[in-house]
Design a protein that fits this description.
alpha+beta; 3-stranded mixed beta sheet
Length: 176
């Protein structure tokens, strides 16, 4: 009997020490798929302008930078300073943000901030009747939350995040 009581007590203490998490999904409409435009600039001029804008944004490492194939792909980069949440009506709290993240809270309503928000910018050029069709998209976008760090039950959760289209549109503007 004591053994059953002890197991029950330990189980209750363990369960009561766990934080129950709630996430709230995004209400607003955000960038889905690539931003697409045509440009009369040459491939080399497009590459020069795109890499210049990315460098101004602090994005300087590239996984692929191939004018021959028409592909630019950045290494995964941090977006921690470029994130925003939504207000109750689904509008960005920080309208200049590059990424919108879902709210993530403990059951006691303590809001948690992501440990890391990262993404990749991919640019693809396709020849189209003497001009270049430019596809720009943020891919591999993720916000990671760690909670109960340093404990045996450390947890890592990925919460939905979306591009606001700010970086993609800045890149397109540079091609005008």
């Amino acid at each position: 009997m004591r053994k059953i009581l002890a197991i029950t007590l330990i189980s209750l203490l363990t369960l009561s020490s766990c934080k129950v998490m709630q996430s709230y999904y995004l209400k607003g409409n955000y960038q889905e798929g690539p931003v697409i435009a045509n440009s009369t600039l040459s491939k080399s001029e497009i590459f020069s302008r795109v890499t210049s804008v990315l460098e101004k944004e602090g994005i300087t490492k590239f996984k692929i930078l191939s004018p021959e194939t028409g592909v630019i792909m950045t290494e995964e980069f941090e977006l921690n300073e470029r994130i925003s949440r939504e207000d109750a009506s689904g509008k960005l709290i920080n309208p200049g943000a590059a990424v919108v993240i879902g709210n993530f809270r403990t059951i006691s309503a303590k809001e948690l901030n992501p440990t890391s928000t990262k993404g990749v910018i991919t640019v693809r050029l396709l020849e189209d009747n003497g001009s270049q069709k430019v596809w720009i998209m943020m891919t591999s976008l993720k916000s990671i939350y760690k909670y109960q760090e340093g404990t045996e039950i450390e947890r890592v959760t990925e919460i939905p995040s979306k591009s606001t289209g700010k970086i993609e549109k800045a890149l397109l503007e540079s091609l005008k």
